[in-house]
Amino acid sequence: MDSPEAFCVTGLREWIALPDLGVVGLRAKIDTGASTSALHATEISEFERDGERWVRFNAHIGTLVQRRHRCEAPIVTRKTIKSSNGQAQARYVIRTLLALGERAWPVEFTLTCRKTMRYRVLLGSKALVDGRLLVNPAHAYLLNKPQILTSPGAQ
């Protein structure tokens, strides 16, 4: 069994950054009941680059004032996800670096419209295991905001 020192305790909500996408200042909901992580994305379109499948999309940053940030990432796969209300949806899956507190590791995200949801990012159990995180649901924002500079493409 791993020693407790190897793990980091997180709250139910935390600030994250996605540095490879040039995105910083996203509030994420930690969801141990979800296997896969999800990122709010709109205007999603697939394209080819150097013989590989990529996806282009807008990530949405901010809570009161929404800013769109155009992103591109290689496609890992397409996956059918069943939401908590039982609806099945085919989604693109990307893999990108996640920064949370002092840690950073690659995480797979499905791209989906979460505009009706309070949090633009949902961190699922696979990301928690890979990041060696323990969740204390009695707290929120236990970790410092990641200090990652955004790219000049943010709108």
UniProtKB/TrEMBL annotation:
InterPro entries, alphabetized: Asp_endopeptidase (IPR008503), Peptidase_aspartic_dom_sf (IPR021109)
Native species: Pseudomonas kuykendallii
Keywords on record: Hydrolase, Protease
Short name of one Pfam family: Zn_protease
GO biological process terms, semicolon-separated: proteolysis
Name assigned to this protein: ATP-dependent zinc protease
Gene3D superfamilies hit by this protein: Acid Proteases
PANTHER family found in the cross-reference section: ATP-DEPENDENT ZINC PROTEASE DOMAIN-CONTAINING PROTEIN-RELATED, ZN_PROTEASE DOMAIN-CONTAINING PROTEIN
GO molecular function: peptidase activity
Domain Retropepsin-like aspartic endopeptidase: 9-145
